[in-house]
């Protein structure tokens, strides 16, 4: 599958632009490893942290007798800067139409909510995190209602599928008119939401933009906002957009020293990427070779044949089998050859359900 896309949404002066600028600086630092020439200017790319890749590369170097570690290629998350959200965006206020068009193409929404105390940054429409979120959600709901109201009931003799489709549309409309985001409870509902690119059915994550001094108290802030926003704690990340902007221009060693001073072990952007990955029900399988050691993104529940297609579409069509080793066995025993010698390499067919961290070699026909 292509890179995961998250739309960054927020009212004016909540720190959205500062956060996105940090993403772009981080992207420049990654440019040696990833070809960003085709990435749009409003897209920033972040690696999904994966502590398995380095030990995997170290084992591969030794087992393959390489002079140096193969390059590490992490799974990627693309963050899209969504322009122009103001109250009335659903009616075209500000850059409303552009905002709606951009966000429809994303896989999930990242709400940036202001929780910092800088009096020099005017609020300009931002009130407090709960009301800010309510304004954003209202605009999304109004936009989706407009989309649903354009759907006409089927006429004449119609199939059960057509009847079910319109029942789902009516249910979605009723929920939105009550000020609630629609619940996709079933395959038909998911299909309608996807077909109509509904905004309110997209998964959400929440970036609480806090003061740098609050980062040490992230656990307490997450617990607080889980209650205030009535969302799961797993969807929330506490960040300081100002700190992220400063971290993005530092080298690895200086980043670690700075984070240690702040009492954090991982940048907010990395934590945001990890939460996005988890919220969308994604996982990684790994490949280990002389050219590179890489994490590949797949949806949970994908088969070996579907996973092969993520590397190249032809691989899915010409799939024969998959050679699979668990990460623990690969590291403990020291590579493919050693794992094969003691019977730890499994031969799996096209219907095998991939597990997170599987190390894979796909057998592909001509």
Task: Give a brief outline of the structure.
The chain is of the alpha/beta class and 366 residues long.
Shape: flat
- Rg, Cα atoms, Å: 23 Å
The overall average pLDDT, rounded, is: 86
Number of helices: 14
Main β-sheet description: 6 strands, mixed
What's the arrangement of strands in the largest beta sheet? 2-4-1-5-6-7
Q: Give the percentage of residues in beta strands.
A: 15-25%
- What gap, in angstroms, lies between the N and C termini? 23 Å
Instruction: Give the H and E element order.
Output: EHEHEEHEHHHEHEHHHEEHHEHHEE
Portion of residues within helices: 40-55%
What structural class do helix, strand and pairing data support?
Answer: alpha/beta
Which regions are unreliable across 5 or more consecutive residues at pLDDT < 50?
Answer: 29-39
The oligomeric status of these chains comes to single chain
Count of extended strands? 12
Please characterize this protein's 3D structure.
This protein has helices at about 15-30, 55-65, 95-105, 130-150, 160-175, 185-195, 220-230, 240-245, 250-260, 270-280, 305-310, 315, 325-335, 335-340; strands at about 5-10, 45, 70-75, 75-80, 110-115, 205-210, 235-240, 280-290, 295-300, 320-325, 345-350, 360-365. With about 375 residues, it is an alpha/beta fold. The protein has a six-stranded mixed beta sheet with strand order 2-4-1-5-6-7, with helices on both faces. The chain has a three-stranded mixed beta sheet with strand order 3-9-8, sandwiched between helices. A three-stranded antiparallel beta sheet has the order 11-10-12. Strand 6, helix 7 and strand 7 (about 235-240) form a beta-alpha-beta unit. It starts with a strand and ends with a strand.
